Amino acid sequence: MATGNIAIDRLHLDEVFTGKFVHRPFSQCWKAKCDEVLLVIDDDNAKCSRFTTDRDIADKALSVINKNKREIVLLAIDRQLLTGIEGGIADCALFDQRQFRFVEFKTNAERNAKKNFDKATKQLKNTLRIFSEKLKPKIQFDSAVILSCHVVTSRAFPRNSAMLQNYQLEFALDTEGIFLSFDNKTHWDNI
Q1: Every domain of the chain and the residues it spans
Q2: Distance between CA atoms of residues 94 and 8, nearest Å
């Protein structure tokens, strides 16, 4: 089933995310853009992650700097593609032919950084496992693209650099080297 999107077709995502495992059809869960700056939010009202142009909510968004204007796909995962997954899952993924980044938003969390970071990293690891297992019959996911993960918090959220470095190290050890970012800004062309 070709979607016409090179990254989706190359990874066979629309082929493996079908049937009773899936909450919504894959075709309803993704959108692609190639703007120089992309803002991604987890929209509580729409109950999904999405692109936005509203700069007023930028403090709760992941800002993607895309200088080469490559086409980036946003796949809404939690409450869209998948729902009711034990252990939780990432809110969305951003990807192209070379990179695949899972994103977990914790922008409504105001206290207890450790509890929120523990939950976020568990959700990201669970999502990595699910995608790897689903894609295994078609591709070796971790070698088909450069994988990374992001935890997005509001700018007011307390941050301790030593604690974040410990989470990054533990995450890399648990996932065979996958990078974990706590920045709300990323440069797409840097990977």
Answers
A1: 6-190
A2: 11
